[in-house]
Amino acid sequence: MEPTDTAGTEYFHRVVDCQWACPANTDVPQYIRLIAQGRFADAYLLNRESNVFPGILGRVCDRPCEPACRRGRVEAEPVAICRLKRVAADNRGDIEDRLPRAPEVRNGKRVALVGAGCASLTVANDLAPLGYECVVFEALDRPGGLMRTNIPAFRLPTSVLDDEIGYITRLGVDVRYSSPVQSLKALLDDGFDAVFVGSGAPKGKDLRLPGRDASDRIHIGIDWLGSIAFGHTKSVGARVLIIGVGNTAMDCCRSSLRLGAKDVKVIARKPRRFFKASEWELEDAEEERVEIVVNYSPKAFVMENGKLVGMQFEELEYEFQGDDIVGQKVLRDVFLPCDDVVLAIGQENAFPWIERDLGIGFDRHEVPVIDTVTFQSTRPGVFFGGDAAFGPKNIIWAVKHGHEAAISIHKHCQGMATTERLPRGVNLTTAKMGIHEWSYSNGYEPAERRIMPHVELTKRFKKLNIEVELGFSVEQIATEVERCLNCDIQTAFTPKLCIECDACIDICPVDCLTIAPNGDATEIDERLKTPRQNPTQPLYVSEPLPQTGRVMLKDENICVHCGLCAERCPTGAWDMQKSTVKIPYAAEESRAGEAQWQNSRKAG
Amino acid sequence: MTSIAKPKIVHSGLARNVLGLTVRDYEGGMSTLCAGCGHDSITASIVQACFELGVPPHGVAKMSGIGCSSKTPAYFLSASHGFNSVHGRMPSIATGASAANRDLYLLGVSGDGDSLSIGLGQFMHALRRNLDMLYIIENNGVYGLTKGQFSASADLGAKNKRGEENRQPPIDPVQMALALGGTFVARSFSGDKEQLVPLIKAGISHRGFALLDVVSPCVTFNDHEGSTKSYEHAREFNLRAIHTDFVPPEEEIMAAYDEGDVLPVELHDGSRLLLRKLANDYDIGNRGEAIEYLRTRHRAGEIVTGLLYIDESQPDLHGANSTIETPLNQVPYEQLCPGPESLAALQKRYR
Ligand SMILES: Cc1cc2nc3c(=O)[nH]c(=O)nc-3n(C[C@H](O)[C@H](O)[C@H](O)COP(=O)(O)OP(=O)(O)OC[C@H]3O[C@@H](n4cnc5c(N)ncnc54)[C@H](O)[C@@H]3O)c2cc1C
Ligand SMILES: Cc1ncc(C[n+]2csc(CCOP(=O)(O)OP(=O)(O)O)c2C)c(N)n1
Ligand code: SF4
Ligand code: SF4
Ligand code: SF4
Ligand SMILES: [Mg+2]
Q1: What CATH number is associated with residue A216?
Q2: How many angstroms does the Cα of residue B166 sit away from the middle of ligand 5?
C-alpha cells in the first residue's frame, strides 16, 4: 500500500471520533480536559465557538458524538460527552465580557433572517460581530423556535434558553417579534443584501383515518406541545394514546403525564429496533411508566355520541430476513380506549409565504433546492438553513447550517464567490514535557459511565417545568472526565528514526501496532497483529523503515492514546502530539479577506 | 502525566487460548529496562509462546540470575513462581527446583555475563545434566546492568561505545552446547519474533535442557557502529539456517513436504517440529557437522540462527536418576524420609 498521508487534514481529524461525528465539529477532548482542570468558563467558550448553545445542547443534543466515541469501543459505554457539556455550562459563571462584540460602526450591509430559531440565531451570532446589521423576523412573541415551543421545560428550562439566546440578541441584533413574514418578495424589495430562511419545518403530519374530524381531542403533536409551552393547554384526559415513536412522541407522552394523564401509551407500528427515538429518550419515558406498544397499526378513531372513546388498531406480525422486514400479516383487530390522541408521526417544511416566481427552485416535493455546501438557494443572496433547508433534523445540525450560511452570506455581501471557502486545517504540537511526562492525563483506568441522577418520580410531575436531570455531582464529573481517551493527542510517526526494536509493538495494550512487509490492502489486513474490526477507522501505513524496508502499521480503531508507544520508543520515532482542528467560521473568512485586501494594496 | 503501567485492556479483538486466557494473562509488570532493549522483545515472545501453548501460568517457575536480562522475569507471567538467584548461580537453584517438582515448567532467563562470564561452570553442568528446562541467554555482548563492559560473548574486534576494541575471543554458547552433548541447541534474534516464538514453544516442549541463545541488542551500551550485537548488525548478518514450524499435539500437519528437505521431530508430549533447511549446506541432525558449520560461518562474520540440533532420545536428569514419576514435593514426608532405622538398614548393606 502507499504510505498514508497524515500531513493533510483528514487523517488526524478522523481519529478524534467525537469531533468528527459532531455536525458542528465541537472540540470535545479539549473541552473535557478544560473541565478536568476546573476551567469551566474556558470549556464553555470553546464549546460555544462551534456549537453556540452549550447549555441547551448539554441537555438536549441528539449527541451523534456518543455512539462514535472511542471509549465505547473499549468499554461498554461511551463518555457522557453531552452531560459534560452541561457541566461546563452550569459552572461557567459570568462570561459575557469574553464574548465577541459588535463593532461601533457597522459595515453597511443588512441581512434579513426569517425565524428566531437556532439556525437564524447562529447566523446572527456569526455576522453581527463583523458589523452586519441583522434583522430577525419572528412570527411568535419570543425567540428560540422549537427549542422553546416544543422541547418541554422539564428537559430544557426556559432560563437556560433565555441566557444563551440573550448572548446573541444583545450583540445588537434587531429581533422583531410577532412579525411573521408573509411575502418573501416584499422582504427582498426591502433592499436587504441577503436573506436567510430559518423558518423551520413547522407542519406536523396528520393521520387521515375515519373519525379524524369528528373530535377536538385529536391533536397534532408539535402544535399541541407548542400550546402547552404557551400555557394554552393546561390539562389532558386520563388516558392518552400517542401515535408514533419518534422523539416528538417521547415529549408528548411525558408532557401528558405532567398535565394529569394516568395511563399513557405510545403506539408503534414496528418493533423496537426500528424506533426513531433515541435510546435514552425511550429509557426516560419508560422510567416514567409510559407503556410502549409495538406492532399496532392505527385503523380508525372511534366515536360514541360525538365523543372520542378510543382507537381501533390492527395488530401486525412481521416476517424478517436478517434485519429487514420482508412481509407482514394482520393478526387481529384491537380496540384501545382513550380520552385524547396525540399524533407524533413527523414534520414537514411549508413555505406558503415564498412566492414561486422569485427564482427559488423547489423540487417536486415542494422542498427548496439548496446547495449542501453554501446553503444558497437557486436565487443568489437567498440562503436556507436548519429544518427549513433539508427537512427536520436537530439543533446541532441547524447550528452547523447557520455557521456555513453565515460564511456564504459574508462572501456574498463582499462580492466574493460563496464556493471559495477556507479549508480546514490540523495543527500538531508535541505533548512531550520531559522524560515520562506528557501534557495530558494518559493513564487508562477502567470506569463505567456515570449515570445522570434524576428528580424522584413522585416529585417530578407536580409542575410542568421541573427539570428532571439534576446534573453530575463533583465525584461523577471527576470520574467522567478521566474516561475520555484524549483522541486529539495523536500518535505521530517518523519512519526514518525507527530501528525496529519492537518496543512499541510489545507495549501497546490494545495490540494496534504491527511492523510487517508491505503488501496490498488484503495482505496488510492479514498481517495486522489484531484483525481489523472496523474498516471505517483509519489505517496508517508508514514509509519503508530504514533497516528492513518493512512498514509500520497502525489500526486507529481501538488505540487508547495512552502514549506508551512513544514512552517506550528509544528514538522518538513515535511521538504524542496534540492536534487542533481549525474550523473556519465567518470571522476567519473575514480576517483572511482583510489580509488579502491589505496585501493587494501593498502590492498594487 | 508521568509514566504509567501498561493497562490491562481486554478488547474484543483479543484471542483466547485453550485455557480461556488472553495474552494479557501472561504479561507481567511494566518493564524498567531502557526503552528499545532487545530483552523486552524476548519478554514479549515468551508471553506470546506461553499463551499460544496454553501453559498454565501457575505451573511455571521463572528462574534467573543477575543482570538486565535476569530482571525480565518480573515483566512476564506475573502469576507464575520465580526465583532471582545470585549472579551466575541460577542453574543450581533450577536443578533444586526441578529435583523437588519435576512437573514444573522451568523457564530460565539469563544473560551472556550471567551464564558465560561468572556463571559458566554452573551453566555447563546444568546442560550436561540435561536438566529439563528452557534456558534462554539474552545475549548482548555486554554487562548491560553495570553499564556496558564487554562480556565473554563479545566478538574479537568488536568496539565498545567509546571505540575501544575487545581483544579476547568470544565464548559461543551454541558451539559449547553442541560440544557438551546438548540435546536442544538453538539461536535466534530478539528482532525476529517469527523465528523466536516457535523456538520458545519447542524449547518448552522439549524434554531436557533446551538452550536458546538470543542475540538481544542493548540499545544503550551496544547498539552503535562497530558493535556486532547491534540491531543493524544482527539484521545484516543473520543467517537463518533452519526454519522451525511448531505443530501442537492436537493439530494435524497440514502442509505437504518433501522428505529430503524437511525433518519431522516428535517431542515427548506429542507436539511435532518440522525443521526445514534454509541453508543448503547445513546438515540437520549431525552434531559434528553443526559445530564445523558454525565455526566457518562465524569466521565469515555471520550469525547462524534456527534450531541447529535436537535429540529427543536422551534421558533428562530425572530419567538418568530413575526418580519416581510423582514430583518429590508431593511424596509424603514419612515416605521421603523414612527415619533413622531405614538409614541404618541401608548403611548396613554397604558394610
Ligand atoms: C417535539 C420536538 C422535540 C425535539 N427535541 C429535540 C432535542 O431534544 N434535541 C434536538 O437537537 N432537537 C430536537 N428537536 C428538533 C429541533 O428542535 C429542530 O431541529 C430545531 O429547532 C430546528 O431549528 P430551526 O432554527 O431550523 O427552526 P425552528 O426551531 O423551527 O425555528 C423556526 C422559527 O421560525 C419561525 N417562523 C416560521 N415561519 C416564519 C415566518 N414566515 N415568519 C417569521 N417567523 C417564522 C418559527 O416561529 C420559529 O420560531 C425536536 C423537535 C421537536 C418537534
Ligand atoms: C557476584 C556478583 N558479581 C558481580 C556483580 C555485578 N554485576 C551485576 S550484573 C553484571 C553483569 C550482567 O551481565 P549480563 O548477564 O550479560 O546481563 P545484561 O545486563 O547484559 O542483560 C555484573 C557483573 C554481581 N551483581 N554479583
Ligand atoms: S474518548 Fe474522548 S476524545 Fe475520544 S471519542 Fe470519546 S469523548 Fe471524544
Ligand atoms: S497510544 Fe500507542 S501504545 Fe497506546 S494504544 Fe495507542 S498505539 Fe497503542
Ligand atoms: S519503539 Fe520506536 S524504534 Fe522501536 S520499533 Fe517502535 S517506533 Fe521503531
Ligand atoms: Mg549482557
Answers
A1: 3.50.50.60
A2: 29
